[in-house]
Each structure stands twice: as C-alpha cells, then as structure tokens.
Amino acid sequence: MSNETLQAVRGMNDILPDEAALWLWFEEVVRDWLHSYGYRNIRMPLVEPTSLFKRAIGEVTDIVEKEMYSFEDALNGDLLTLRPEGTASCVRAALQHNLLYNATQRLYYYGPMFRHERPQKGRYRQFHQFGVEALGFAGPDIDAEQILMCARLWRKLGLKDISLQINTLGDTAARQRHRSRLIVYFEQHRELLDADALRRLHSNPLRILDSKNPAMQSLIAAAPALSDELETEALRHFEELQTILRRHDLPFEINPRLVRGLDYYNRTVFEWVTQRLGAQGTVCAGGRYDGLVEQIGGKPATATGFAMGVERLLALLQEDGMALPKSQVNVYVVHQGELAGRLASQVAELLRDDQLRVLLHCGGGSFKSQMKKADASGATVAVVIGDDEAQAHEVSVKPMQGGVQQRVSVQNLAATVKTFIK
Ligand code: HAM
C-alpha cells in the first residue's frame, strides 16, 4: 500500500477555519436578506436520478454532455448524479410534494454543486450556490424583484463593479422558429463550422452562437437574430421589466448574445458580471423557466430564479480586503490538581450557561505552559484554579490584557468575567 499523503480531489476545496469565519458571516448576511424578501428555505438531496438533469438542463448542454458526476448505484443499477445545480431538484421537490398549483412559492437553497469542469480561479468542481426560485409567478414584476434584490445584496456587501446584463429568449414557438432558421443558415455555411458547431448543428444550434472560436465570429454575427422572432407578449414582458428597473434607477445592459448554458430558460435571462475575476466573472445568473415543470412531468407552471456562486462573491470580498476577527473565546480555564480539574469542568459548563465562550484546558501541563495557551487562544480572561482555590470553592480571574488578578467565589464568577467583556 502506498503511504504518500492523501490530497483532496482536484477542484474540490477545504475551507479552513480562518476562511470559514468569512463563509459563516456571508451565509448569515445572505439568509437575512432572503428572509427580508419572504423566501423560505428548502433542502434537497445532493444526489438525484441522472434523468432529472438530462430532462431539465438539456441533453446537448456542456453540463449534461461532459460535466456531470454520474454513477451507477451498485445495488440496483439506477443511474444517479451529484447535482450540478439546484433548480431541477427544487422544481422536482416542489412537484413531488405538491407545493405547486393554487399556491405561489418563494424558495431558496444553499449548498455544494458538482461539475467536472477544468479547475481555474473562480471555477471549481465542487462549488457552492445560494439558489433562489419563485414558483407560480408569471409577470415581469417578480423578475424585476429578483434582480432588484440582488442589487440590494451587492450594496449590503459593499460590492461595487458588478454590472447587470439582461436579455429575453422569447417563448417556445419563437425559439423553435429561430432554431429552424439557424439550422438553415449554418447548413448554408457548413464549411465554416468547427467540429463542435457541426456536432451541435441539429441538436442545439443556439449554442453555436456561444462559440468563442475567432474564425466563426463573423459568421455568428450575421446569423438570424432571435429578436426578429419574438412574440408581442414576450416583448411586452421584457419592456415592462426594463421599465421597473429604470424606475428603480438600476442600470443594465441588454446583451442579445446572452443565452445561458442551460436549456430550460424562456423570456427573461440575466447575469451579474464583474471584470475583476478574469474569465470567471459571472457571480450570479438566472432567469425565467416557465416550461420546466411540464418538462419534468407536471402541469404547466410559471417560474423564475437565479443562483449565485459563493466562491466568486467571497473572492471579490477578499480582494476588497474584507477580513473578519477570528472567533473570540471569552474565557480560558487553567487548572492543576485533581480537585481543581473537577471544579474546572463544572465552572466551564456554568460559564457556558451564561452564554460565554469557554475553552477548558485539556491535556495537563504546568500553570506556565497552560497560561501560554490561554494567551494564544485570544481569550479575554483566564480563570485559574489550583487545589487550594478548589478547596474554598473559589477561582482566580486573570485579565489577559493586564490588570489585577482577583479571587472570586464560583457563584460570582460569571458576573466578574462579564465586567471584562465589551
Ligand atoms: P449557472 O449559470 O450554471 O446557473 O450557475 C450560477 C452561478 O454559479 C454562476 O454564475 C457562478 O457564479 C456559479 N458557478 C457555476 N459553475 C461554477 C463553478 N464550476 N465554480 C464556481 N462557481 C460556479 C444555474 O446553476 C441555475 N440553476 C441558476 C438558476 C436558478 N436559474 C434559475 N434558477
């Protein structure tokens, strides 16, 4: 057996305690913000049937074609997948548990997602999303609310340099007309297509428009535009969305090339983008997906949502110099002797009853070495207990920033400690 040191899977990160403090703070801010808009938490499994993602995200998408962690259940042969995103699972759960129809839902979820992408800065194989889904709302008012709520979060976090791009994809019929026209157009220019484009020509010609191949850019620029196919209703929806955003003085750019990498979208799509993260500049993205419920077996239902990449937002915050104080322990309990040891653990519990954060020294050692640990812990006070103090059911309180050590009864300890804590 090899005894080389084991490493985490490439693209999957450990989050160490100093950094985790920032995550905890961020998660709290985001939850408060979600609750202030009436969103309620939902938690889905990390593993779903592979067919769910194939049907929801689309067979001919990067995610389904090459990025899913899929495996066969060794016991029954079921094909399963680690979720690459949350929308499909959330809608599956809402449908399965009858949360849809005759009701609207504002839901959010948080957790890891898995995509087998090439890791780089801002792109990981396990990453975290806060996902937000509003089910049963048809109008542009909810699209606008979701966009405006994002803007509020950026303000709350003090994040600047994130700009908004929006587009409309119209409804199914328009996209089908557009699709047919694209196939005809690209067929006429077959000799200019690369291998990827040829493969997608009949299965997903829309994705050819996303190609970064410089040789194909002028061909793409002259391709039939979806905007020429859009229905009045979808256009009105898009106009109204823009009106609301303008009313709130929220700047945006209409990007007709914005099509998103998942197939379930219709009408509104949007992305929040920053220039500060290199190639992985999209920190939050989403849109309307009115066809998804039906696609996974339900009766039609309207829906819209978005998800934000936590690693990317935290990278921005860290770049802005956001650092949090390490989690503060209030008290370090130092003790020597058997009687003292027994009292020390009782005292630690009593102080915790009083909402104090307490580190009880474990592992023995001299008073001197224990005091060094107390110093390093960042505690505000040390509680020192020797057997003579323990005999008297008393302890000594030593302020770590200097000051007089005092002896107090166990009964008065919590009150004394609190006088040192701001
Ligand atoms: P998405 O655009 O695939 O949409 O992902 C949303 C966000 O997740 C991205 O903008 C990015 O910030 C983050 N993200 C995606 N992949 C990675 C990765 N490999 N590493 C780090 N961050 C990543 C969705 O997932 C849709 N479910 C959003 C949605 C919800 N649409 C409607 N409702």
Q: Compounds present?
A: histidyl-adenosine monophosphate
Reported for the largest beta sheet, the result is: 8 strands, mixed
> Number of DSSP strands?
16
Please give the order of strands in the largest beta sheet.
1-5-6-11-10-9-7-8
Helix content: 25-40%
Strand content: 15-25%
Class from helix and strand fractions: alpha+beta
Total number of helical segments? Answer: 15
Task: Tell me the distance between the termini.
Answer: 54 Å
Globular, elongated, flat, extended or rod-shaped: what is the shape? elongated
Mean pLDDT over the residues:
95
Low-confidence runs of at least 5 consecutive residues? none
Radius of gyration: 28 Å
Give a concise summary.
This protein has 422 residues and is α+β, with helices and mostly antiparallel strands. The protein has 15 helices and 16 strands. The model has no long low-confidence stretch (mean pLDDT 95).
Output the keywords.
16 strands; 422 residues; binds histidyl-adenosine monophosphate
Q: Overview of this structure, please?
A:
Helix content is about 40%, strand content about 20%. The chain has helices at about 15-35, 50-55, 60-65, 85-95, 140-155, 170-190, 195-200, 215-220, 230-245, 290-295, 310-320, 340-355, 365-375, 385-390, 410-420; strands at about 40, 45-50, 70, 80, 105-115, 125-135, 165-170, 255, 265-275, 280-290, 305-310, 330-335, 360, 380-385, 395-400, 405-410. Strands 1-5-6-11-10-9-7-8 form an eight-stranded mixed sheet, with helices on both faces. Strands 13-12-14-15-16 form a five-stranded mixed sheet, sandwiched between helices. Strands 2-4-3 form a three-stranded antiparallel sheet. α5 (about 140-155) runs parallel beside α9. It is elongated and about 95 Å long. Bound molecules: histidyl-adenosine monophosphate.
